[in-house]
Amino acid sequence: MKRVTILQAFEAMKVFLEGYYERTQSDDIGSLLGDLDFLEDGITADPAAWGDWMGSVRKILDTWPTLSMLNLSKPPGVDALETTEEEIREHEPEE
């Protein structure tokens, strides 16, 4: 069974945005992609970007049962989207 981690989902989002940027050359998307790059210290170029990402992850996980009821429980081609509270805490930015 394939599982998508928080970091893999983040990288997948970046790949999606890179494709969009290549097609549109949007300055806004280009700027966003720059903010999402990881620096040598392991933090995103815009430190708030990772916190925003983790907030989005938590929001989706909190609403996932509702999405499941709509038969949207997982995207096509993904066997499971699972994460644990421990993984979320591990990836959340420090306060």
Structure notes:
By secondary structure, the chain is mainly α. It has one domain (6-91). Helix content is 62%, strand content 0%. Helix 1 runs antiparallel to helix 2. The longest helix is centred in the middle third of the chain and has 23 residues, at 47-69.
Provide the succession of SSEs: HHHH
Note the overall shape: globular
Radius of gyration: 15 Å
Q: Count of helical segments?
A: 4
Distance between the termini: 34 Å
User: How many domains would you count in the coordinates?
Assistant: 1
List keywords for this structure.
mainly alpha, 95 residues, single chain
Please outline the helices and strands:
Blueprint: H1 6-24, H2 27-36, H3 47-69, H4 85-91
Helix pairs in contact: 1-2
Offer a concise description of the structure.
The protein has helices at residues 6-24, 27-36, 47-69, 85-91.
